[in-house]
Amino acid sequence: MINLCDISHFNLSGDGEQTSSIEHLILDNIRINLYHIYSIAPVLRTLDTIIDPYSVNHIKHNFPPEYLSKLSIKFFGHFNLSTMKQLLREITRLVHLTIVAYDIYNDIIDGFAWERILANIITFKFLFSFHESTWTQEPIELESFRTPFWLENKHWYIKYDRCTVSGFLLLYSIPYFNNTYPWVHIKGPIITKSTGPDIFSLSNINHLNVNYESPINTEILCRFTNLQRLEESLYRKERLFIDSRYCSLY
To answer: Residue 122 pLDDT more than 90?
Structure first.
């Protein structure tokens, strides 16, 4: 464990000779240059952070901590398979990988390419939210994620939700692991497809923000089986109505 004193002198710029003995690091709401973290925290074993994709794509050499085995990363745009290949190339001990990426494009949907990148990974969780320009394109195909590598060797299954009104598309590993769901883009019914068991519940989510200007699809809402708090993003006096006919869970 690390305490606040350890962090108070942690130079995120990567300048100078300073190094840290930190082994487990979470940097929330901070977008970092990954290689600066590598240089000042050389004994990291786990890292959870937001990555600046520019720092991955424009540096030729990657010298990660030798014992880094668990990596959880978030990207906001500019994420592709080349970025991932560059990032993982020299993390030889990595076995647990979690990726959350926003505003990505359909070129990421290539199960065969992912196989080559993820050969040594034991646990892989991901959530991909696609750029708005892809919402009008043809629905994605999941056949490249139905190979023996995915289904028999790794036992990794994926699913996508697509709103039939807005076209919004979300691709994720199942079971759904994140604690948030981009409900704001759901304007009506959704179509779902999966490579594995059809897991109805999104039980990790206990707090949901809805926009009263968008239709409330109660059939989708009832997928949130552990929902404890429901808030409207814009205030109004009318009561939010949930049709209980759709709320029988099996």
So the answer is: yes
